[in-house]
Amino acid sequence: MFNLCMFTGDATSKESSPFINSSTSDVEKSQQYDGKNMALFEEEMDTSPMVSSLLSSLANYSNLTQGSKEHEEAENNEEARKKTVQAPRMGTLMGVYLPCMQNILGVILFLRMTWLVGAGGVLGTFIIVFMCCSTTMLTAISMSAIATNGVVPAGGSYYMISRSLGPEFGGAVGICFYLGTTFAGAMYILGCIEILLVHVLSEAEAALLNNMRVYGTIVLSFMALVVFVGVKYVNKLALVFLACVILSILAVYAGVIKTSFDPPFFPVCLLGNRTLVSKGFDICAKTIEQGNATVTTKLWRAFCDSEFLNATCDEYFTSNNVSQIQGIPGITSGILAVSIKLCVPAVLDPEATVTNTNRYVMADITSFFTLLVGIYFPSVTGIMAGSNRSGDLQDAQKSIPVGTILAITTTSFIYMSSVILFGACVDGVVLRDKFGEGVNGNLVIGTLAWPSPWVIVFGSFFSTCGAGLQSLTGAPRLLQAIARDSIIPFLRVFGHGKANGEPTWALLLTACICETGILIASLDAVAPILSMFFLMCYMFVNLACALQTLLRTPNWRPRFKFYHWALSLLGMSLCLTLMFLCSWYYAIVAMVIASCIYKYIEFCGAEKEWGDGIRGISLSAARYALMRLEEGPPHTKNWRPQILVLMSLDGEQSVEQPRLLSLTSQLKAGKGLTIVGACVEGTYLNNQPQAQKADQVCMKLMEVEKVKGFSQVVISSNLRDATSHLIQAGGLGGLRHNTVLVSFPKNWKQAEEHHRCRNFIEVVRETTAAHLALLVTKNISAYPSNGERFTEGHIDVWWIVHDGGLLMLLPFLLRQHKVWRKCKIRIFTVAQMDDNSIQMKKDLMTFLYHLRFDAEVEVVEMHDSDISAYTYEKTLVMEQRSQILKEMHLTKNEREREMRPNLYQCCISLFTMLFTVIFLCSCLREWENLNQSNVRRMHHAQELNGVIVKKSKEAKLVLLNMPGPPKNRNGEENYMEFLEVLTEGLNRVLLVRGGGREVITIYS
Length: 1004
Fold this sequence. Notes:
By secondary structure, this protein is an alpha/beta fold. The strands form 4 sheets. A 10-stranded mixed sheet has the order 10-9-8-11-12-17-16-13-14-15, with helices on both faces. Strands 4-3-7 form a 3-stranded antiparallel sheet, with no helix packed on it. Strands 1-2 form a two-stranded antiparallel ribbon. Helix 7 (156-165) crosses helix 22 (523-551), helix 9 packs antiparallel against helix 21 (504-520) and helix 32 packs across helix 35.
């Protein structure tokens, strides 16, 4: 089965089969299926293609997002937008290896690598480089597995993470990756300006920070203009910039070889153990001999108040000698043994910085191990360059793993060898000179290069320019991809651009964010920021691979086989460790930003279904939990109402009692399962559309009422069987409903509603047989909605019999909701003649105290009384009506006509009974023939109703034990009459019938 991701114009993925019912004309379709040997499958012709057609479509499939090549065509030719995208032709070398090399090698290597070796020592720096390179290598292995698990359109890490971990993680990490790429552009521009101001135009060094802000803004504006005009200029210059990088690196290696037999002469002047700025003197000495006289030098005049030998000089200058050392002693000098252990942390001295700023080479920042990690890590980023170009590759599933891993191996070798070679060739004093002030303003790495330091200056300058352009080209497209996925609503405006698809608005936002990085005006301060964002992105790439591997989903079949979940978890751990090593507060800020974006996407409702691993986790966790629940019923302390709500639908498939869901929502403090069940009468084949409509109606109403649960619609030949199916088969495994919520049938005495009466009683019987709790709402239309608030009132519980404690638990759950929060609970219980009501009240209060329920308690005494004539007459009318309907087997219309005279006669009899003794004498014989059990039930219902109405008529809700159903069908109408009498005169009643097990306990 083929599962391919298609993208529409707005980059919304369609997880469907893109080749079925495509834009094939009817004529072509008829020709396509024409064949006598296909007659057996002619019924499937409209929905299923022939295999030959599918394979042909697969071979020609090129539905990828627009890449840089297509942007160039759209700019150069108006007809290009109408052309079919040709099959990509880029191989591993040009498509993956060289772009990764260009993105990985850059500004840190040329501007900070020597300083890192000097500040951290060869061994310490080598550990940093090894950790960072190992992190990117493990990430590349995980990325290769994901990238080779199917077609990955151009979108890079964002596409892989979002399709592997879901839209929430994808959006959060995608934004972080976008910010990282944007700040990387700021870092490259700052590096470019640093080279320009410090090493090319040295006289502009005076107000360095402000100059970097001004010139950086100018360069950013120019680069943004170039990207806006067209990416074709960036792409054409990419190879030139890469050539500059390679030539510069080769020049360094050539210089290292040359030092073995002819080290370059770069003298460094020291005063004591302090390096002197070379611009402050011409001769490295305090005095020189001219003829027979001793003459002071320019260096003397820099530290003394006059040029004479008796001048007053700086104390440190007077007490220390001036010496000159060779800055580049060469690879054969043996200084590696010293440098490998040497680690001199640079500590800022605020006073010295002010007084000696033009004399000594001073540290501009306090260096320590974790800071060095944060500054170095951006130098190993850029491993996603190949996957970002997957749409332009001839064989992406082969090129991405090979090219990326080979590029990381090459660059790791360059970085690790550079650490050792710098420590072996360059003196530590020079290595710690960040801006080359002690070697005539040269780049320190340039002093090692052959044939000239200017090779490194110009090479690094152009490489930083190229990397900055690449960042400003890639970041807006990443933001555009996120915006077009519509997972973050307020970013949708950035999904639009020029007619050829160029992300104009995204480029504008990127330039503004990049400007904030430039205003920081310090490469060392910007580097840890983008390290956070890249590390977070790499961490989630590893997590995605580990997750997919551990879940073992059927669709996880990467062509790249050299991966393992343990390697991915190790890579994820390294990323997390490096984040906190670089800067723990930056790491927390980055995580907070990602978490806020995650929750925002989740809040807005990410309606994307990309078959991601988080859904896979949910499935696996649900399966595991269900298997655990099968071990046995939950303990009383873990019992919670798992509610099956039985909804009635009208002819238009609309819900008749929406207040049932309001009550369900108000019981959500129970934290249980909710299943909303509905029934459709008919056959499955004919009524499936109606069932789907009913399901959508139920889900929409659940969303409105904020009920979290599931909807289940059952189709059956009759409603009675459908309801029975819901009660029997609802839920899954151990996660099944234990409570049924249903509304008391309205107007059940009318003939056309008689079937509802029968269905209701069957529900009562089946829940009793299944040992399920039953909640029956009376006058459901009077129940409050979720928007209403009771500012006062009572929830009255009439505890007649104990059947598990659900009657006590329900008011507690209701009071957790804002509708019932200000209502007070009153619990009434009934005492018989031989009960001690005072002791009963004390015992009940003690019981509630142990249950941690706050409620008022009252014991109501019911005395035995004689059965009134009204009770006899009401029972007589009830039995007569039931008997007549049963014997005559009338049709519905006849029952309706028959019912009205009976009701009329009943009213006449009741009226006459109260005032005429003659009527009582005439009915005496009939009363003696009545079923005495029915008389007692009717008498008890009336007596109990009278007490309840007297105490709870003004209550906001009355909860009451529900009597059991009749054992046979003869007394069904009588049972309904008893319930009607029991609840007469009450506004809102919730009849509760327990499931036969304890649901509350006094124990912890």
